[in-house]
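Interim report, section 4.2 (structural modelling).
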Amino acid sequence: MKSGSNLEKVLKGGHFAVTCECGPPRGPNPDDLIGKIDHIKGFVDAANVTDNPTASVRMSSVGASAILFRHGVEPVMQMVTRDRNRIAAQGDVLGAHALGIRNMLCLSGDHQTFGNHPHAKNVFDIDSMQLLHMVRTLRDEGKMDNGDPIDGKMGMFLGAAANPFADPFEFRVIRLAKKIAAGADFIQTQCIYDMDRFRKFMEMARDMGLHEKCFILAGVTPLKSLGMARYMNRSVPGMSIPQRILERMKGVPREAQAKEGIRILLEQIEELQQTEGVAGIHVMAIEWEEKIPEIMERARLIPRPQVD
Amino acid sequence: MIVADQKPLHEVKEFVETHQKILVAGCGTCVTVCLSGGAAEARLLASGLRIAFQRAHHPKTIEDDTVLRQCDEEFVLPLLEKVKGEGFDAVITLACGVGVNFLADRLGAIPVFPGVNTTFYGAVMEPGLWAEMCSGCGECITHLTGGICPIARCSKRLFNGPCGGSEKGRCEVDPLNTPCVWQLIYDRMKELGRLHELRNIIPAKNWRPALDGGVRHTVRERIYRLEYKNR
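Predicted structure of the assembly:
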């Protein structure tokens, strides 16, 4: 065991894992976050805590992850290299470990021009690949990036992101392989709508044996409305929603679109469960965490496995 | 070359409101080529300021002069003599930030104001279009990336391939105007038959030779020592 985290145990136990996303609040008060935790508790194996998502200021992922931990939901602490250099990153990882955090997701982070402080200076001392390598060195060798020993041992289950839908497509699997070589124990993908392209991506990953070297969790996001689907298709770089899905959303009255979005999601989950090399799903129900219990029930993914 | 953009006239005008005799100093090298601070721009700015102050009923004496390089004492000396000898009480330089500093270090009580915003090290892509190509990071890694720099040309300075925002060869930060440099690197390495090299992980960079190691100097010992001994 690299961390002893619940997520690691579930995946290594051969269970189909479920993670979701839990966005920290826009202020110092943890009440809303605790509300979200109550919605998802018992329905997922771990929940990602975003790190100033889309470069907009939120409660820190370390702080919010510690709150999740205290309230009985295992956090996957996201960490971006946009806002911290190698010194801060290593210090934050050590602090997170002391607070009980045992999973993290290493990311470069959205560019600050997309966020609420577009005039900020970014850091990008290291990239996500180098962050993975750095934390693995802390964990496996007990050494900082400069070779200095740390006092004591550290366990951390290391995750990375993969976007099968960005370009150049042929490089996407190579980049996945690099992340695994750098230290990724698990992968969470960008949300999938284009199943054909995802199948092709998985085929390439299997050809390289990557599904045996790390756990790949397929990212999914329920569509709330046709408007959201159109917006994501048009405005989110590296994301395309097939015409077939847009048509389906268009084909139902506005008030029934959210239901249709969940139905599409459930069909996707079923297909993903059958896809060789997919070890679980990562449900990004953006500001829709209250839907997680319904989704999990209808997908027959509860009760979650208890592994020791 | 070093690329710079002219500051708006009103901003430059404000700098010198309280001064009477002002020299606008152009530079004959990079800023001349990128059309922001050469002799022509210096003359235009001087006349623009003259007209603006005249209209505001505060006429001032504003002249212009351009030297070949404002970053080299040999070329700057005549400019310094002119400023001090002819009683100018302020200088606006259209050189890059190097020129502003170089003059400020040498002009004693006479203030120097920047007339341009220095932006980047770049190349002429098309007439009228310049693009960033180098960050001056002090330790070139382009031998690993087919000669194309991800530090200067990737919005996130990524070392190990394109982020999830690379779409149809464009950078998500400014898709209309900016190619994804990792797409360019990928295509170039493919063309060079070196695609397999991109599987290697480029480790964390040493930023010490960049600005992060403190203020930088370069010494050519054979020249610098010689001159030092002669002094």
